[in-house]
Amino acid sequence: MHPLEERIRNFDSSDFESLALDVFRFQYENVPDYREYCNYSGRTNPSTLEQIPFLPIRFFKSHQIIANNFEPEVLFKSSGTGGERSTHFVAFKDLYRHTFQKIYQNQIGNPNDQVILALLPNYLEQGESSLVFMVDQLIQNSQSKLSGFFLSEYDALIERYQQATSLGKQVVIFGVSYALLDLAMRNPDLSKATIIETGGMKGRRKEMTKAELHQSLKTGLNCENISSEYGMTELLSQGYSARDGLFVPGHTMRILIREVNDPFHYIANGKTGGINIIDLANLYSCSFIETQDLGKLHENGFEIMGRFDHSDVRGCNLMVQ
User: Fold this and answer.
1) What is the spatial distance between Cα 226 and Cα 99, in angstroms, rounded to a whole number?
2) pLDDT tens digits for range 16-30
3) Which of 70, 110, 142, 252 is the most buried (most CB within 10 A)?
């Protein structure tokens, strides 16, 4: 195991910047495409998080982002709603597994005490999904025969939920937004479940704001609160939102908000800008990612505001053709 990986596995977030800068130096030396991007940006020796170049997320569609001398154990691909699918070349599945299990336990609970139901039809159908990999492991950790995946078997899912609650089990339901809306049309009473929506409509439904979506789900599923998971193919860490709608990043994550038209300038808490993510668990690919999401940073978490309209963005996408 690389010494940096061991530090990341045992990391308690006490000195995030120091570890992140060490990860930067490793990736600058060992990830050729990232090194080339840093050289183009003119930022090759940062001393703070804000000085680190963040790789535009589009590189995961056009380049093989992985450190020299490492072969991927698994390839994760995005849902591909825009056509071309991003690919994350993951050197070690166990680092991903270790990371998401720790974040989940810290923020959602111990899966050993839960029944986990997953309504992720499009991810199952397309395959090579990091989300399916994560939820499948959590289902295995639950060690419950009631846990499992569902495509469009909404009545079966409701029945499993009822069986689990009758046994006094905590139920967690992961679901893609459009499938949860289809479930809500049946108006079940899922008031005892923790419901975690995992993404957009994937072209299946009219797009809604997060507030509109959650209100529709709360009404249709008869529950007081909807949680969300913030993750993506290009990340190995996640964030989860609770009742206030703010996402809490996992211990291996840090969020910075950049100026929309200047990717090297950061803005104050409470103002909308582009989301940059540091994901230490991405040790063998790239830990510094410039996303296409808009958001705000707050003292107790971050908020997702939507996506960039690329016709209005004049940011620095060096090397992206």
Assistant:
1) 23
2) 999 999 999 999 999
3) 252
CA distances from 121 to 114, 124, 132, 149 (A): 21, 5, 10, 8
CA dihedral 212, 215, 219, 224 (to 10 degrees): 170
CA distances from 289 to 15, 52, 134, 222, 255 (A): 20, 10, 21, 37, 10
Instruction: From 23, 38, 42, select the one nearest 290 (Cα to Cα).
Output: 38
Distances (CA, A) of 174 to 163, 197, 275: 17, 6, 24
Task: Work out the angle at residue 77's Cα, subtended by the Cα atoms of residues 283 and 128, and round it to the nearest 5 degrees.
Answer: 105
Q: Tell me: the pLDDT tens digits for 102-130?
A: 999 999 999 999 999 999 987 887 888 99
Domains of the chain: 3-65+252-312 (2.30.38.10), 95-230 (3.40.50)
Token pair of 40, please?
Answer: 């183009």
Residues of the chain scoring pLDDT < 50: 311-321
In terms of Cα–Cα distance, which of 288, 287, 261, 284 is closest to 274? 261
Residue type at 41 in one-letter notation: S
Burial 120-156 (b: 16+ CB within 10 A, else e): bbbbbeeebbbbbbbbbbbbebbebebbbbbeeebee
Distance CA(129)–CA(37), nearest Å, equals 27
The phi, psi pair for 127, rounded to 5°, reads 80, 175
